[in-house]
Specification:
Layout (H helix, E strand, L loop, with lengths): L1 H22 L1 H4 L3 H22 L6 H33 L2 H8 L3 H27 L8 H20 L12 H12 L6 E6 L6 H9 L2 H6 L2 E6 L6 H15 L13 H12 L4 E8 L4 H5 L11 E6 L2 H4 L6 E6 L5 H12 L13 H11 L3 H11 L5 H9 L1 H7 L1 H15 L3 H10 L8 E2 H10 L11 H14 L4 E5 L5 E5 L2 H13 L4 E3 L12 E5 L16 E5 L20 E3 L20 E3 L20 E3 L20 E3 L2 E2 L10 E2 L15 E6 L4 H4 L8 E7 L4 H10 L5 E6 L20 E5 L17 E5 L8 H4 L7 E5 L6 E4 L8 E5 L6 E4 L9 E5 L19 E5 L3 H5 L9 H4 L4 E7 L5 E5 L2
Parallel strand pairs: 1-4, 1-5, 2-3, 3-4, 9-10, 10-11, 11-12, 12-13, 13-14, 14-15, 15-18, 18-19, 19-20, 20-21, 21-22, 22-23, 23-25, 24-26, 25-27, 27-28, 28-29
Antiparallel strand pairs: 6-8, 7-8, 16-17, 29-30
């Protein structure tokens, strides 16, 4: 881990030095030679660091060397950032300030430059000294042997899990039955069966029970189990397969096996397996090339052979194997099974293995921490089996991270869970560690995380794709490797929200602190001394005192602070190198004047705070990439916003608390007249359409998201020209100034081809004729359109439309879903005052999973054809007629048979007291 942080620090610094030399020559002046020297030496060190990053165990000398490189890289970065901060502060001033620096303050400026040059010379000498110790980085034989033993221990543990007694397993019956069926079915085509899931789920244990079962053994002529090391040799794998196959049939192993070369091994395997029905288990696969390496040695002669593999990486499980394949995603244990397994281990000496009542709260907390991982449950249960007193259990609960680091009985579990982390490229390791700054069980939004990574410089530059797209690929990789758990996906399976497994987070936190990557500040672990480069303040119930040791701080994140001072009156001077200031949801009333001196700031999140205004001189934050003031009390943006030339995401809408019957949805903020000068802006959401604004934003063709409110009828032509020019636009929100005004968009010949979601709020005279061109659209929300024309024929053919919301959008009496809607999964029908009949033809909306009918009081009967919606899981009625509900209430009701296939049916209504009540009609 130390090598990871050091390598990342060196890599980040090299990019920064290169940028400084190339683009800031006027600033660095005579420092170029010193920076060039540092750059050359760090480059030579980086390759050694990358090699060290692949080592799971470092000697003390190696660890010291790596730590020194990390520290020196961070020291160079601090000095360089301090210097550019000073020089940028000079440039940011007006003419008077620059004149002042050139005359009165010139000696001070020269002194700063001289002091920085001296520091760089000292650092150069340090680097030379560190570089000379590189020979100590060589690994002696004993250290190599230690690494081999560690690898062998892991392999031995994986092998031993194959022999766990059946009665000690819980919650695997259904999984086992499914796998046995796949292995022994009548298909004669060779099939690859992949078992995927995060480390510790028991993939090996489950597959071994299936592999050793009598029905499977009797089905195949021969069988082989191969545990794959992370650094495998193909020839060794083939030799082990030959040994296993011959042992399974009690045949003699070829005497010349150890001298066979690759082609001879392939030939021996193919000749032996020809005409045999075989099964091979490839356990713990880490490489996507393994199948290509060995497939040639496994013949496919139509005898019904099977290959099973276990992996933590969904990418590997989803490979195109060139033959029939199946994937089984192993899930964590259900709560009941997890509790049973824990009690089996922790209370094995108690009557009926029951938990004593006085220990139940602590025991259930520990089981909850395990998150359904059998490995963790068994390990923790074993540790707790020797603890009798409540105080001992409470101590482990309160300091689980300490136990994980120091209890020998838990170190193996920790190593297993961290294998996936060690296999990550170092850039992804740092991105994963950044996620640990969020509180336990915190749901992390995809876009927020991406913007934070970008601000911290964790996203590498790539040609032809945006930083946002690079960060998206990082997220995809982390989820596919089961390092992040997906909490919510969009209509087409793209992850939107994530969280960390509690235990994996606890383990990673120790590395977060030991490598000075980040630190947490909360009631249990409050510390005035920081020393880390990232600080996460979490759930403080007492006054936060002045923090010390924050001169190198780059990120400050505040989460759910209960009784912190209601305003940040002053930032410590050491914060001036800050890149990230995330105050989302904190009870902050006022920002300090020092904010505009954070010249390195790239991310400022004030969402949900009580801040009422931004500083007029916010334009001094020339590196700012993200400004989020959503749902704050800010009512106007200062003119200085237009000076933020690196700004990419400007988020400023206020969502109005509303009922279904209200027109208001979003309220934007007025923007300065020169906002169109923000050439790097990707997201503008939402802005008020003041006089001539829409005409001005016609040049912002780079936008991917546009939200614009208070549009007037006279804006139609300018609005349509602006939208037509935005060929990269993915998301569009347009609302008219009030519910009685028309939203006119007929001047738009066709929508941008990339448009994925669209919300239109306001009266429409007719359905825009360009609706059928929305071929990429996944979400359409028509709000208060009050169309007399049926919109369905215009959108039924949209191939990707997954969510449709019609809120007071149609004044007709009938909605007829006659054709299409092949991708529609969610349908909202809200506040349609004259709707009396819904007709759904057979085969239409075949994938619909959720149907919500709200405030359609004239609808007295169920949608005709609802019985054909086989995928429908959720049906919800809110404030509808009693006649409609009565038709499905109770087993003997008129239309009960039409909805009996729907698992969840809810009815929301108001009681006589005015409170909303929920009735379950399932």
């Amino acid at each position: 881990m130390a090598a990871t942080v050091a390598s990342a620090a060196a890599d980040s610094l090299l990019r920064k030095i290169t940028l400084a030399i190339e683009n800031e020559a006027s600033l660095i002046g005579g420092l170029r030679d010193e920076l060039d020297a540092i750059k050359r030496k760090l480059k030579s060190m980086r390759s050694v660091l990358e090699d060290a990053d692949e080592m799971e165990v470092l000697s003390r000398v190696e660890k010291d060397w790596v730590d020194n490189v990390r520290d020196i890289s961070e020291e160079v970065e601090d000095v360089l950032d301090e210097f550019t901060y000073h020089m940028n502060k000079q440039q940011n001033g007006g003419k008077f300030t620059r004149l002042l620096y050139q005359t009165v303050l010139l000696p001070k400026s020269l002194l700063v430059r001289h002091r920085v040059a001296t520091k760089f010379q000292e650092i150069n000498r340090k680097i030379t000294t560190i570089d000379e110790t590189r020979r100590s980085f060589a690994v002696d034989g004993s250290e190599r042997q230690h690494r081999v033993d560690y690898q062998q221990l892991r392999l031995n543990r994986a092998e031993s899990s194959r022999f766990i007694e059946e009665e000690k397993l819980v919650g695997i019956e259904n999984d086992k039955e499914l796998l046995v069926t796949w292995l022994t079915n009548e298909s004669l085509e060779r099939t690859v069966i992949s078992m995927a899931g995060m480390g510790g789920l028991g993939k090996t244990t489950l597959v071994s029970k299936v592999y050793n079962s009598q029905v499977v053994r009797q089905h195949f002529h021969c069988y082989a189990w191969i545990t794959i090391s992370q650094k495998y040799v193909v020839e060794d794998l083939m030799r082990r397969m030959i040994e296993e196959f011959h042992n399974s049939t009690q045949e003699a192993i070829p005497t010349n096996l150890n001298t066979m070369r690759f082609t001879e091994l392939v030939s021996a395997l193919r000749n032996y397996l020809r005409t045999k029905r075989y099964i091979v288990v490839l356990d713990d696969v880490w490489s996507s090339t393994l199948w290509d390496d060995i497939r040639v040695s496994l013949p496919d002669d139509g005898s019904g052979s099977r290959v099973m593999l276990t992996t933590r990486d969904i990418n590997i499980a989803s490979l195109n194997f060139g033959v029939q394949s199946k994937i089984h995603h192993l899930r964590p244990l259900e709560k009941e099974n997890a509790w049973d397994l824990f009690c089996m281990k922790a209370f094995s000496n108690k009557p009926e293995r029951c938990c004593p009542q006085e220990l139940e709260i602590s025991a259930k907390n520990l089981v909850l921490k395990c998150g359904g991982l059998p490995l963790a449950i068994v390990a923790l249960g074993g540790v707790m089996s020797s603890k009798e007193h409540v105080s001992e259990w409470k101590k482990v609960n309160d300091s689980l991270d300490f136990e994980l680091r120091n209890n020998p009985d838990l170190q193996y579990m920790q190593a297993i869970l961290l294998l996936s982390f060690y296999e990550l490229p170092y850039k992804l390791k740092l991105c994963f560690l950044y996620c640990c700054l969020f509180p336990e069980d915190y749901v992390i939004k995809r876009k927020r995380l991406i913007r934070l990574w970008m601000a911290e410089g964790l996203v590498e530059k790539a040609s032809r794709i945006t930083p946002e797209e690079v960060a998206e690929s990082y997220l995809k990789e982390l989820t596919q490797r089961n390092m992040l758990q997906v909490v919510m996906r969009n209509l087409f399976g793209r992850p939107r929200e994530f969280k960390l497994h509690d235990l994996l987070r606890e383990i990673a936190l120790s590395m977060l602190v030991s490598e000075k990557f980040g630190a947490l500040y909360d009631d249990q672990k409050a510390s005035e001394e920081c020393g880390a480069r990232r600080l996460s303040i979490q759930t403080i119930k007492k006054q936060i005192k002045s923090l010390k040791g924050v001169s190198q701080l780059r990120s400050l994140l505040v989460f759910t602070v209960d009784t912190v001072s209601p305003s940040i009156e002053k930032l410590p001077s050491g914060f001036r190198l800050l890149r990230v200031l995330d105050l989302q949801g904190a009870p902050v009333l006022k920002l300090p004047k020092e904010l505009v001196d954070l010249l390195h700031l790239r991310y400022l999140n004030l969402r949900g705070t009580k801040v009422e205004k931004l500083p007029k001189s916010i334009g001094r934050l020339r590196n700012l990439q993200t400004l989020d003031v959503r749902n704050s009390r800010i009512e106007m943006l200062p003119a200085g916003i237009a000076q933020l030339q690196n700004l990419r995401h400007l988020l400023m809408y206020r969502s109005i608390v509303h009922y279904d019957a209200d027109y208001n949805i979003y309220c934007g903020l007025p923007a300065p007249s020169n906002i169109c000068e923000l050439e790097n802006l990707q997201v503008l959401d939402c802005v008020e359409a003041e006089e001539n604004l829409i005409r001005r934003i016609r040049s912002m063709t780079q936008l991917t998201k546009l939200g614009i409110t208070w549009v007037r009828e006279a804006d139609e032509e300018d609005l349509c020209i602006a939208i037509q020019n935005m060929n990269l636009l993915h998301h569009l929100l347009v609302t008219v100034i009030d519910e009685e005004k028309f939203l006119r968009m007929d001047a738009l010949p066709e929508a941008p081809p990339t448009l994925k979601s669209m919300l239109l709020a306001g009266k429409l005279e007719k359905v825009p004729y360009w609706f059928p061109s929305l071929q990429s659209l996944t979400l359409l929300h028509l709000h208060w359109s009050r169309l007399t024309q049926d919109v369905l024929p215009f959108i039924e053919g949209l191939p990707r439309l997954g969510r449709l919301e019609l809120n007071n959008a149609y004044s007709g009496s009938q909605l007829h879903f006659a054709a299409g809607f092949k991708s529609l999964k969610i349908l909202y029908l809200i506040n349609l005052p004259h709707l009396k009949e819904i007709i759904i033809e057979h085969g239409v909306m075949k994938d619909l999973g959720e149907l919500f009918i709200h405030r359609c009081m004239e609808l007295k009967t169920l949608p005709c054809g609802i019985e054909h919606l086989a995928c429908l899981q959720h049906l919800q009625f809110r404030m509808v007629s009693s006649e409609l509900v009565q038709r499905i209430r109770g087993a003997q009701s008129v239309d009960r048979s039409k909805v009996q296939h729907i698992p969840f049916i809810k009815h929301y209504y108001r009681s006589q007291s005015g409170r909303v009540q929920i009735e379950n009609l399932s």
